[in-house]
Amino acid sequence: MAFRRFVSHKAAVISCVILGLLTLLVVFAPFTARYGVNESVQVPPNSFLTPRANAWLGTDDIGRDLYSRLVYGVRVSLIIGLLSALISVTIGSLVGAVAGFRGGKFDDIMMRITDLFLAFPFLVTLLIVRNVLGAIPWIKPITGEMNSIRFIILLFSIFGWMGVARIVRGQVLSLKEREYIEAARAVGASRRYIIRRHLLPNSIGPIMVALTFSVVGAITGESTLAFFGYGPQAGDGATSLGNLVGAAKGAVQTGFWWLAVFPCLMLVIIALSVNFIGDALRDATDTQLDRGN
Amino acid sequence: MAEKILQIRNLRVTFDTPFGQVFAVRGVDLDVEESELLGVVGESGSGKSVTFLAAIGLLSSRARVTGSVVLQGEELIGKSPQQMRSVRGRLMSMIFQDPLSALNPVHRVGKQIVEMLQSHQNLTSKQAATRAVELLDLVGIPQPEQRSSQYPHEFSGGMRQRVVIAIAIANNPKLLIADEPTTALDVTVQAQILEVIKRVQQQIGTAVVLITHDLGVIARVADRVDVMYAGRNIEQGSIESLYDHPSHPYTRGLLASIPQPGKDRLTPIRGFPPNMMAPPSGCAFRTRCEFAEPTCEVDIPELRIFNDLQTACLRAQELPNFRVRQ
Amino acid sequence: MIRYILRRLAWALPTMLIVTFLVYVALRIGTNPVESYKRSNPRVTPEKIQQYIDINGLNPNYVLGYFRWLNNFLTGNWPRSIKGSREVWPALKDAMANTLRLGIAATVVGVFFGLIFGLLASLRPGGRRDIAINTGAFVGISIPPYISAILLQLLFAVYWQRWFGSSLFPTSGVYPAGHTGFDLFLMLKFMALPTIVVAIQIIATYSRYLRASLLDVLNSDYMRTARSKGISERRVLIHHGMRNALIPIVTVAAIDFGSIVGGLIISENIFSYPGMGLYFLKSFGDGDFPLLMPWMVIIVASILIFNLVADLSYAWLDPRIRRE
Prior knowledge:
B: 12 strands
């Protein structure tokens, strides 16, 4: 039922195809990219070439192929998005389930904290938390340098779990009152058992939806950071889509449109596809619709 | 014979859904006479609500309506939405099942009545407000003046249904359609609401159509009864005749399945109502009927007069006399 | 009602203290104000540094330091910025005025068009118009503000100039360089692009909110009651539908405040619009503690006020809440 509804969502199916192709393109980057990340198209390097046969999407300020850089950039960004989404969904589901199920002080404190973070402008919190994390010496062995990919992933995990926790908590709160949970409690099932066997499995839909939205959040968030010069250090295997979008800012006034348009377009396509999938997942797993039809 | 307010002839309503067509109403013939109280009975899905929603023009655009509905000599089917609007609320109005959600929660009760008054009559705000209080008084709401400036959530379910009635009768309509008005209410409140409807009918001379699945409700207030099954009306007549000697096997089954004191077993009708996406050929009730014959599969029975009832059954004359089994 | 407001205000004060304390600690750890001061003023004397620590409440003990800072802040004894030793209030005041103007313009435009699109979409759910609006809103949500800013800038400033000789909209500042005095038309022209960037986001979110909430409302029984009265479809929608559909939207509006400010920050940065966003990014980059703290106080206060206003309008819209 849920699968059929998902498939009937045309935009989501198209998005799946697009993301699938992108993933293939990116996984086989050494073959699909035409040049290395930092390799120039011509020797001696020829900067700011317009799109042409030997550089499909043009070249940048030091003559590197934009297409190849995009392929590698998307690879890094997808890794950032997926990893930090996985971490934040794991933490968020657990915290949300426990908070929703136990209620009381733990719930209050958790929700106060997330309220506080969500009320603040995202960029402000992001920058401050980033700096705080970078300034505490004993965290450094875990997070690595402030401009490393690892740091970025952990940073977005810290932000991502809160949204997930809220969604899961809401779901658990509404499930808690259902008869089958009461029945499980009546026959003496332990809390841990109820959370593991009943609440989390039945929250899978909302969790999946939250997962897709945290992927988008991390990918666009990374670009935002990079755009303002707080992103990961570009380099071999670390040049992210955000770096390329950040470079677009400088290309605008000089009129090198391809440097601005293509990275931006790529980011929008990824964000849009994942959003569509998330939306379709939400529709498909909404149990209220099941009862209606 | 009294004048006929509403004449429905061969009314058909079909819904287009993604899964196919649903034949909700399949040829209904029905008259409502002036100032009478007509009960319309049937199971859920029998098309009783849809028939009257079609008559008042409140069906969604997915519904295809054919046939004829004549209100006071005026044909309603085929009227433009604008023309239907001037009929709705003025000549004919409707009240619905759930009083808890039928009123807009953000507007004062009095204002909701005033809106109804002012959209069909030229009244100043003051006149309309005075009239609204009178109407609340008429439907039996104590302290109508204060109550009219309160919000729906400050009223109990029964009181809200009274407000809904007050809205519906605000413009002295010729016809009031009450769709399961008591189903959502407590039994004691049900009786009060029926009382209000009966009183309104007598005081302002409105004809009332009371749609319900509850034969007990009908027995209490109706003058005439119309029984519907699978999108058609299968029997109609005066309340006395119908309860005394029903002809149609379905009506008999309905009456036999009413719980009664002293009767230790219920006699349910066997089987299930038909799927309205593919209704059976011939008489729709034949699959559940103990008197069905091969001929029942062929012809759709029309309403015919028999024993001062109108009955749509091919075998009406051959059936044994009805007796509620004790 | 008044008691409710008073109770909310009484709560706002401790919240304000706790949050500003947290911000104070975070900024001290995150931006290291003393180091930043030394970095900006390499030849500064130890006495000056001590003076800087005193007036900013940068004691080693965070709690004592916070109250020190709070005392100075409340008595109007504000420290000067570390870069160029400027007074903070005039800079902050100007930034606030500029941002308020931009924010209000974007909110008005955004909410207006957002609600209209949402209404149009929900009239015939699943229809062609609905699909078009919904997809458009989805695209709008998926485009981060800096991307729409870059693309708008590329189109209306750089390429417009190339194609037509002059740019349609200026891309930076509030007025052209050297301009003095007030000129409404010029100001609006300079505001156009940054406003559009923020408004796109608001339009996209609000059209989706309203559509969802209206669809809920349109299926409710009281809408059928309203239709059965024989009043015009427009009156049914606006009088009965919109009023109810707005109730849930008001609650999300308060949450959206943060994202609108976020959009403003980004938009201001790209269009070099001298508002709160540019102010923040600059002073954050410099680690300018004296500039940052008052900015934070204003943001926290606006969040609290916004929440209060949202709650009050919620109560105003929904009579069921009012009684409590």
